[in-house]
Amino acid sequence: MDRAFLFHELLTSLNQLLVKPNEVLFVLGPNSEQSLEVIQSFQPDFDVRVFSTEERNLSWARNIGIRESVNEIIIFLDDDAIPEPRWIQNLLTPFSDGSVGIVGGWTRKGGSLTYQQRNQVVTNLLNVREISDGASPNDTEFFSPLGANFAVRRDVALAINGFDNFINWWGEEADLAIRAYKKGFRTIFSPTAVVHHFMAPSDYRNGDINLIKVKVPIRSRAYLMCRHANSLANIGPTLASSFQNSIRSFEWQAVNNALTEENLSRLKKELVEGVRAGVVKGVTDRHLEHSGVEETNESKQIYEYKKSNENEKAKVTSVLPLFVYREGPTDGAGGISRWIEAMCQAFGKAGVASIFVTMGDFYSPTKIQFTNGYWLINLGSELYYGLEEVSDKYPTDLQIFAVMARNFESLIRSSFGATHIIVPSFEGIGNIFLNDERLITTLHTSTHESLINHPNLPFNKATEFRIKLIENLEDNILKKSRVLIANSTQVVSKLGLESDSRVEVIPHGVRLCSDSRTKTTTHGDSGAPKILFVGRWEPRKGILYLPAIINSLLEQGFFVDVVGGDPFNRKIQDLKESKERHGDQLVIKGVLTDGELKNHFEAADVTIIPSIYESFGLVGIEAMSHGCGVVAFSGSGIEESLSGSENAKFAPVGDSELFTQLTSALAWEFKLNPKRRSQSREFIETNYELSMISIKFLQFLQNLPLSNPRDSF
To answer: Whole-number mean pLDDT of the chain?
Structure first.
C-alpha cells in the first residue's frame, strides 16, 4: 500500500527537529511511486537517500536501512508517526552509557496525549506488559521498544545480523531486543523521546488496532515463541490462549456487525494457517542463524538529495515557542488566534517547530495534531482536573490558574520542552505561568481600552466586577513578565509602558497574496467599484456608523459586501432593509472560510474599517496584501500601521460623511488605475510580509538571555 499522504507531514516534522538527523533513509516497497514524488518535492535540512525493494516486508526494509546507513546510531520511525521536536536528542542521550544497545521512546496515540506504549517488557513467550517508570523487568522479561520509535547502535545491529527476515510484521523489535540482550547490550526507555503514532491503514489493519489480515502476525508470534522459549513444551498453553482470544475478538466483531460471516471464516482460517507455518519454521530453525542484514541485497538506490549549506548561519535552531490562547484557529476566529496560527505556519516553513495550545472546556477531550507545519493542542477536561478540590464553592481565578498550571505541566511541558511560553496579556491567561522565567507576554490590546472605554456589552455590576478582575489579572502579568512584545507603539502607549525597557515592538505580519484579481466576484460586472467590510458586529468595530456609510455608498451606485458575525444584531437588520431596496448591489455574509474571505478581498477595490478602536488593524493589513485600498477612522493602531501608504485614508472618528467621501474617491482611483493594487501589495511586502516578520520574531527570541538556561521543562 502506497501511503504517500503521510509523507508531507512526516518530512515537515523531521525538518523541524531541534537536532536534525545527519541523513534520512527511506525504503519503499512495490508500487510506491507517489511516495517517491512527495519525497522528491522536499528540500530539507538533512541528506536524503531512497531505496526500493520488491519485498513487502518490514524487517527486510529495516535491514536495508541498517546495511546502507553510515551512522553510528540508527533511528527507526514509521511513516505514520510524527516525532516531537526534541525526539532525536532525547533518544541519543542514553547512548552515553556504553552498555546500552537500544533506546526506545514513549509513543502517544495519534490525536491524543494518552500513550500507546511506554515502558513495555516482553517475556520469551512474547507476553507483553508495561512497568512503571524507573522499575526493572523481572528475570524472565526484556524491555521491548515499539518499532515506530526506537534507536539502535549500528554495530550492535550488525553483530546480531539485524532483524529476522521471516518476521514480516509483528514482534520484530522484541526479537531484536532479546537477541541484543543475549549479546550483553541493554535496552532502556527515554520517556521524553516522544512520537505520535496515527496508525494509518495498511495491508494488515484498517487504521486502528483492528486487524484485517492475521496470518502474518500470528505466524510471527508462533515462530518467535518457538525460537525464544526455554522449552518447546512451554509454548502450547500461551499460544492456545492467544489463538482463543483472537477467535473471541473476531466473533465479537461479527456479533456487532463489524465483520461479515465471510470475513470471520477467512480470519479463522488465516489464524490456523499462521500458527501452523510459524511453529513449523520456528521449530525447524530453533538453533539456526536467522536470515537478516546479510541477505538483504536485493535493493537499489533510486534517489539522493544533499542538503544545501547556504544561509546555514542565519537559521534559527534553538527556539521552540509555545503559544497559549483560549481560542483556536477556526474560521471566523479573532485577530489574536489568526495571528498565532499565521506565525506558527511561518515558523514551520522556516524549519522551526512551534506549538499552539488552546483552552477547551470542562467537557471536551484533549486533542493534538501536527497540521500545517505546527503542533495544535486543544486542552480539554484534563486541564481542569482537581479543580473541585480547590474550593467547595467559588475558587478565585488565581486558584484556578494554579490548578491549570499543574495540569499543563504534566500534559505538555515534560515532553515538548518549549523554550518560550508566549501568552497574550488580554484575558489574564498568562497567570498560569507567572512563576516561569520563560513567560513572554504579547500586547495586542488593553483590557481598559477594549472593555471599558469601548465596551461591547452594557455595563451592570456583574460585568463591571468581571472586567475589573480581568484588568487586575492583566496588570499582574504585565508586572511579572520578563519580556513584553507589542504589535504597535499605540498599544504600548495605551498600557502606559512607553518607558519600560522590557518592551519590544514587532508588528503582525501577513502572507503576500498573488497579483491577479479574481474574475469570479460576488456581483455583476457593471463597472462600479466594490467595497468590502469585514468584522464582528460590535460597537468597537464601528457598527453605529456602518449603516449610514454603506447606505450612502449604495446610493452612489457602489457594490458593497458585508462579511462578519452576529446576524441577530439590530444594525445588521437595518442593512437587510437596505438590501430590500438595493437588491444584489448589497451582499451580506456571515462567518466565511479563509478561502471564501480571500475571494472577497480580491474582488474588492476598497476595504472600509470604521472601528472606533484598533490596537493594530490586522484586517487593514490583510486587505492591502490582497491589493485593496483601505479607509478607516483615525486615532488608533490601524493609522500607525498604514499611514505610510498613499492607499490608506483616514477620517476623524464619527465623521461618516468624510469617511464616505474618502471611500468613494479611493475606490474610483483603484478602479481606474490597476497600479494602485500593486502599490498596496508592495507596501505590505516591504513592511509586514509574514516570513520577514516571523524571522524577526524568532531571532528576537533566540537572542533573549535566559536567567536559568535549560533545554526543556
So the answer is: 85
Pair (541, 460) in one structural domain: no
Evaluate whether 175 touches 167 at the Cβ level (below 8 Å): yes
Contact call for residues 380 and 403 (beta carbons, < 8 A): no
Please indicate, yes or no, if residue 303 is contained in any of the structural domains. no
Query: What CATH number has the domain bearing residue 586?
Result: 3.40.50.2000
Query: Does 447 lie in the same domain as 379?
Result: yes
| pLDDT tens figures, 101-115 | 999 999 999 888 888
pLDDT 10s digits, 414-423: 568 888 999 9
Q: Whole-prediction pTM value?
A: 0.86
Q: How far is CA 439 from CA 324, 424, 481, 482, 704, in A?
A: 11, 10, 6, 7, 12
Q: Residue 707: pLDDT above 90? A: no
pLDDT of residue 708: 47
Please give the residue range of the domain that contains residue 179: 4-203
Whole-number Cα distances in Å, 84 to 62, 184, 320, 374, 676: 22, 31, 11, 10, 45
Alpha helices by DSSP H, listed for 16-147, are 33-40, 58-68, 87-92
114 and 26 assigned to the same domain? yes
529, 606 in Cβ contact below 8 A?
yes
Cα–Cα distance measured from residue 199 to residue 191, given in angstroms and rounded to the nearest whole number: 20
572, 458: one domain: no
Are 516 and 535 a contacting pair, CB within 8 Å?
no
Number of domains, the chain: 3
Which CATH number do you get for residue 35? 3.90.550.10
Helix (H, G, I), strand (E, B) or coil at 615: coil
